């Protein structure tokens, strides 16, 4: 059953570590079955309860899954082998359209803002016990959240969107709880949830956001939390419309105990309005990251939510990193203040590249999706083959497997660095690699 690999250990922690090492090294592969607990216990000379405890630890860490009488097996995407490992080596002279990064040319210069923030830090050094939230960042962020219709709530700052999502989930859920997630959706979230010992319940996505029937089904199936990307959804570019938001709020209103997390990482790079869902459940959070607008290395995200949720996040944060650097917060506040006039130009630039590629693909009979953000999602009949053919033609694109649970095959193309001259040859290459292109709705 396990080939040449032998699970070792006398205690539950040792047994779990042995399996986790093998998964990380590729000696136990995704989908591979593990021995029944009693069989492994007899082989190791330990109590079956010891093996049961080891398997429980591995499930909570997102390494294995249990399918009733079919036993336990390595998860298709174990947390020890994250989706980010599905990377392609870009050949010399090739173009990287897979990474999802913003265009460096559209990012503001960091040096002046960092220097000003550091100078302020010299005047007023941060000390233990100081307020962990920069007052100017809080003021600017609260004004923008108010303008976008996000309910009133306390603010805090985390080290990026994923950090915020993890902390909010951990504040309310326990291992074994189910989370409704977009499918296709952000690969890091799809990895994070099982790593926390939680279960994913996929919700299909179309151009207007999560599907109403999918969310309703997930909540009726026991989802205790739901994660929604409001705009610039990764990987599809979906953006929640006013009509879809009303329908999703109606579903959530019937499940007021649901934890709602909204990720608005597209804030600052999109020209579509926000239609928040927050306010219809007891516990909720909205997070806005600085990464896409100001640069991935600025690990700053503003989080607002109901008082219980924000208080729990702050409390747990105080026992770990304590706070996000006030120098970085002040830097983001300056960029936020200085760059307000540039946001429309940035959104227009990304939009023109995205729409140009979608139009060129449509002219060649290829279906693509991307209402907002920096990505275009293209359903394909054979994901692996299309990625390989495009790579051979000099274009590295992201395989949809990074972002999918049960949705159909696709590829993701990041348009942020495309030039006008790139559009036609890229569309030609995609058309040649994709045909026949499925016209079905993704998700």
Which band does the percent of strand residues land in? 5-15%
Outline type: globular
Major beta-sheet overview? 8 strands, mixed
Give the ordered list of helices and strands: HHHEEEHHEHEHEEHEHEEHEHHHEHEEEH
What is the first-to-last residue Cα distance?
A: 34 Å
Mean pLDDT level: 89
Strand order of the largest sheet: 4-11-10-9-8-5-6-7
Number of distinct helices: 15
Structural class: alpha/beta
Number of strands: 15
Q: Mind telling me the C-alpha Rg?
A: 23 Å
Walk me through the structure.
It is a single chain. The chain is of the alpha/beta class and 443 residues long. 40% of the residues lie in helices and 15% in strands. The protein has helices at 12-25, 37-44, 48-60, 110-123, 135-147, 161-172, 187-195, 212-220, 242-253, 291-294, 307-318, 326-338, 343-363, 383-392, 420-434, and strands at residues 64-66, 72-74, 95-96, 155-158, 178-183, 199-206, 209-210, 223-229, 259-263, 283-289, 301-305, 375-379, 395-396, 398-399, 410-414. An 8-stranded mixed sheet has the order 4-11-10-9-8-5-6-7, with helices on both faces. A 3-stranded antiparallel sheet has the order 12-15-14, covered by helices on one side. It has a two-stranded antiparallel ribbon with strand order 1-2. Helix 2 (37-44) packs across helix 3 and helix 13 packs across helix 15 (420-434).
